[in-house]
């Protein structure tokens, strides 16, 4: 249970958790959108795992737990979710020029619950005119400005006029239910684990851990680590010398 809920156990809790509030764990703050974040992380993990051989034990075990947790998260939907999905589709159809770069990727990607996830690369960039001015810009400052990447997709002209509503938030009771079903601590801890798993998948893929060892182990090398090979047998009960 979150520290704040423990302190306010006798007070009627709020319906929603306030984003960026302390969770009771040092350095860990309440996530603003845990459901959509986990769905995106788990879907990306499953895509990356497909690049590993099917006989890989790591792939098999990680896919199993990822699919299990994905099904749990997808089963809990916030209030107003169906309306949000409908409005999102209508907005995409009304502004195809804005979302054209997503038409063949994230929007039509097969994800549970028709989840629509947009990466930050596709968000409108900040208008420099809206940034607070802090003095004259020198030639050196102009030279240090980043050069636009021609390969980076953009939203197109006039994209700043199209607003995108985030997915409705989960209620506190729904988040508590997910935490109980997953059994991995707070939902923010579960998100950190999912982020770490993505990095681990890349490391395991680069290391090709499913390949045989370059140097074969010598006979008996692993016998010490076998069950009951490195511990003494259980001591029997004491014998009564008088009897």
Can you describe this structure in just a few lines?
Helix content is 37%, strand content 0%.
Describe the structure.
With 243 residues, the protein is mainly α. The chain is 37% helix and 0% strand. The protein has 7 helices and no strands.
Itemize the secondary structure elements and their pairings:
Elements: H1 3-7, H2 34-49, H3 57-75, H4 81-94, H5 139-143, H6 172-182, H7 187-207
Helix pairs in contact: 2-3, 2-7
State the separation between the terminal residues, measured CA to CA. 57 Å
Number of beta-strand segments: 0
Global shape: flat
Q: Quaternary status of these chains?
A: single chain
Mean pLDDT: 74
Characteristics of this structure?
mainly alpha
């Amino acid at each position: 249970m979150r520290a704040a809920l423990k302190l306010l156990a006798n007070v009627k809790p709020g319906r929603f958790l306030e984003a960026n509030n302390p969770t009771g764990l040092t350095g860990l703050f309440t996530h603003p959108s845990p459901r959509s974040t986990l769905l995106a992380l788990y879907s990306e993990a499953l895509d990356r795992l497909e690049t590993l051989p099917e006989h890989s034990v790591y792939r098999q075990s990680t896919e199993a737990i990822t699919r299990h947790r994905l099904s749990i998260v997808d089963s809990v939907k916030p209030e107003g979710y169906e309306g949000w999905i409908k409005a999102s589709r209508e907005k995409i159809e009304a502004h195809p020029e804005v979302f054209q770069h997503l038409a063949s990727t994230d929007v039509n990607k097969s994800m549970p619950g028709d989840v629509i996830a947009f990466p930050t690369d596709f968000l409108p960039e900040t208008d420099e005119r809206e940034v607070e001015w802090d003095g004259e810009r020198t030639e050196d400052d102009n030279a240090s400005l980043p050069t636009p990447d021609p390969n980076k997709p953009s939203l197109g002209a006039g994209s700043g006029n199209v607003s995108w509503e985030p997915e409705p938030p989960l209620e506190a009771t729904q988040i508590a239910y997910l935490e109980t079903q997953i059994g991995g601590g707070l939902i923010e801890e579960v998100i950190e684990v999912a982020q770490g798993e993505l990095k681990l998948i890349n490391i395991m893929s680069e290391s090709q851990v499913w390949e045989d060892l370059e140097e074969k182990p010598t006979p008996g090398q692993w016998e010490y680590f076998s069950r009951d090979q490195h511990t003494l047998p259980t001591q029997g009960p004491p014998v009564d010398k008088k009897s």
